[in-house]
Design a protein that fits this description.
single chain; 211 residues; Four Helix Bundle (Hemerythrin (Met), subunit A); elongated; disordered N terminus
Amino acid sequence: MSEILATPESAISADKSSRFYVKEHHPENGTLLGFWIYLMSDCLIFACLFIGYAVLGRNYAGGPSGAELFDLPLVALNTAMLLFSSITYGFAMLESQKKRLGSTLMWLGVTGLFGLAFLSLELYEFAHLIHEGAGPQRSGFLTAFFSLVATHGLHVTFGIVWLVTLCFQLNRHGLIPENRRRLMCLSMFWHFLDVVWIGVFTFVYLMGVLP
């Protein structure tokens, strides 16, 4: 008799459990909001590095200045590589909206190649400067320069790793809503790096060659 009486209570308990705990609550667009907050924190990091360069950018300590070190044609080519990668990523987003998986993966691959070209030219520039005796320990100017430019380069490296991982996820699961959300987050990150680099190119390289 006790078992019979206990049955309705257990059924009610199970019904409440399925009603209130069957699905985990996840706010709509919560991921995008969180990623925007992350980008704002990244803005603060780069703002501090730009301020550091503004303070130390003329402290040459008897060493070479930017006008003596910077190879503007090489830096302009490097800038073009990153800007082209932003354009190709835009093509990938357009193809993903049309549900064309193959074209999306192709444009993401082209974006990754442009990103690798950018990193290769940047590493060549660093190696050349260090070979010339203009390493980060040479002066306050070079310390600030390497800190700012290398931090941006690390972000591009992380972006490429993220892009490769996303390509594997797309190839395995297709353009499911989760992968489209990840595409959007990486798009925001990649374009953010382009904006930062335009600031670096203008503030560090172009102004650095001025007397």
